[in-house]
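[agent] plan:
  1. take the single chain provided in the ticket
  2. run structure prediction with default settings
  3. attach structure tokens to the ticket
  4. add a short note for the reviewer (M.T.)
[agent] executing step 1
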Amino acid sequence: MIAAGELMKNFESLGDNCEFGILQRRCGVEPLGLLRWATSEIVPLIQALGARFDGFGDAANIEIHTGANGEYTFIDRKFGFRSHTFIKASSISAEAMHAQECRRQSFLRDKMIDTLESGQRIFVYKKATLPPLHAIREIHEGLQRYGRNRLLWVTLADARNAAGTLELVTEGLLRGYIDHFSPYENVPSDISVQCWTTICRIA
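[agent] step 2 finished; step 3 output follows
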């Protein structure tokens, strides 16, 4: 059986928050990903895919804020994504941080386009509240415009669908069911590593 870390290298997070990115870290891998540490809502994500992330990483579209914990937060003004930087304001000036994020986010944007065009990843989108199916289909269609990309959409298990199971919605679009998501206010606190891993193995 493939090790959990090797398994997780086949996936890339699209959001809606950093839970999957933390899962990858728990499994011992640190892949670079544009939205790995980001908060991304469905409509802006669809728009970004349709625009090929044009303008993402441009200096005029980047804001740097300092959170209550002293960590810098990256904010993309064009599509509204917010992302962890894991860098404390005490370690670098805001101006230097802005320049650094311009370079980093531009690199990650180009890498995302290359990954999308290669069709070698399964992209993951999770959300605790149930989004309309047509919106998930739009994300999938947006991915398909680049290449034969697959989307794993993860939602909470229910009376008809047990945790750790998957269903095929349409070709290239899978829906996975999980027992619980980590709380949004403290994502690292309670990640369902075993259930996530089961879903990814089946996918």
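[agent] step 4 note for reviewer: The mean pLDDT is 96.
[agent] ticket updated
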